[in-house]
Amino acid sequence: MSAEYQQLTHHVAMRDGLPSAIRPTLLEEAQQDWKAHPRFAGKARFFMKIHRQLLDGADWLADRTEQLLDTPQSTLVDQINASGIQQRTAHLLHFAHGHHEIEDHGYFPQFIQLYPNLEHAMQLLDGDHKVLDETLDGTETGLADLMRNPNRDSVGLLHRNAAALKKIMHRHITDEEDIIIPIFLRHG
Questions:
Q1: Per-residue pLDDT tens digits for 35-71
Q2: According to DSSP H, which parts of the chain are helical?
Q3: Distance CA 48, CA 140 (A)
Q4: 138-171 burial code (b ≥16 CB/10 A, e <16)
Q5: What pTM value is reported for the model?
Q6: 122 and 111 in contact (C-beta within 8 Å)?
Q7: Dihedral, CA of residue 96, residue 34, residue 62 and residue 86, to nearest 10
Q8: Could you tell me the sign of the dihedral formed by the alpha carbons of 167, 162, 97, 123, in that order?
Q9: How far apart are CA 37 and CA 58, in angstroms?
């Protein structure tokens, strides 16, 4: 990951929006106009639906692990089993990794060919994906620890990873949509 990406204005865990240097390179479709666009029903809507599923999964995991923090040890295993946390989290992790793989190796290279001025924006998203992959891996480790040894410490570890995943996922998806949805509206 580049030193530039590590700056507060670039790193997905630290920024509060797209870096100012990237904004002028974006296509001019305004977000409030997306749904009225004649091509919205294609890939734009599809990608936004996938993104919503990822966000819903990250939100659910962060909320569920927060609830588990308050669960007495005597009922923790029952609550873990009743929540379906293992299956739902495994699905979220697999879904997120697969989605990023498609973007990194399919869509992003095509977008750079169509719009070379978006190369810096695509590099930013690629950096985001590296951070997301690390966070997804940490979440997977936390889940495995919880399933092996369900206790307050393992719940805490999974919760910290889930909270980080939720924050990063929301920032990344918001910024990614600002970059890619206008492309889908033009070519979708």
A1: 999 989 999 999 999 999 999 999 999 999 999 999 9
A2: 45-69, 73-83, 85-102, 108-114, 119-148, 152-187
A3: 25
A4: bbbebbebbeeebeeebbebbbebbbbbbebbbb
A5: 0.93
A6: yes
A7: -40
A8: positive
A9: 29
Instruction: Give yes or no for a contact between 7 and 127, defined as CB atoms under 8 angstroms apart.
Output: no
Domain boundaries, the chain: 35-187
Write out pLDDT tens, residues 164-178: 999 999 999 999 999
Cβ burial 40-78 (10 Å sphere, 16+ → b, else e): beebbbebbeebeebbebbebbbebbeebeebeeeebee
DSSP 165-187: HHHHHHHHHHHHHHHHHHHHHHH
Query: What CATH class is the domain 35-187?
Result: mainly alpha
Question: Which two tokens mark 151?
Answer: 């206790």
Task: Give the tokens for residue 90.
Answer: 């495994």
Q: State the residue for tokens 């999964």.
A: 57
Per-residue pLDDT tens digits for 149-164 = 999 999 999 999 999 9
Question: What proportion of the chain, given as a percentage, has pLDDT over 90?
Answer: 85
Look up residue 188 and give its DSSP letter. Answer: -
Short-list 35, 33, 30, CA closest to 48: 35
Q: What is the chain's Cα-based Rg?
A: 18
Phi and psi at 7, nearest 5°, equal -65, 155
**SS3 for 5?**
coil
